[in-house]
Amino acid sequence: MANASSGAGVHDDCNLRFVELKSKRLHRFITYKLENQKEIVVENIGERTATYEDFVSKLPENDCRFAVYDFDFFTAEDVPKSRIFYIFWSPDTAKVRSKMLYASSNEKFKRMLDGIQVEMQATDPSEISIDEIKDRAR
Predict the structure, then answer these.
(1) What is the pLDDT of residues 96-105, one digit of tens each?
(2) Of 19, 53, 62, 65, which is most buried, counting CB atoms within 10 Å of its CB?
(3) Residue 41: inside a domain
């Protein structure tokens, strides 16, 4: 499926893995990258036992990525809950061309992943700290 904005396609595996995370709860996180400026593909899949630190370590310091993270938490009433986060990682240190390519594909790709509950865009690690995730989950 080609993205009209950037011309980038989306590999079928992207949505398949997302459905596994959302419905079957097989994965903790997924990172996606734009390969050869032509197609969005799955880059990393975190096992259900993976930590938030494992997830953050998969985001490159100097390049953009799309990611989803399934965050489990307890409400104030001690009820277990889960929120699926969509994170558009676009660090300040990324090349301008990369930022532009990812930004032009972001909206359509995000809409394709049906079931996202919280959206975030981050330009440095402090914007996706575990405390920030906890605040946004509630």
Answers:
(1) 999 999 999 9
(2) 65
(3) yes
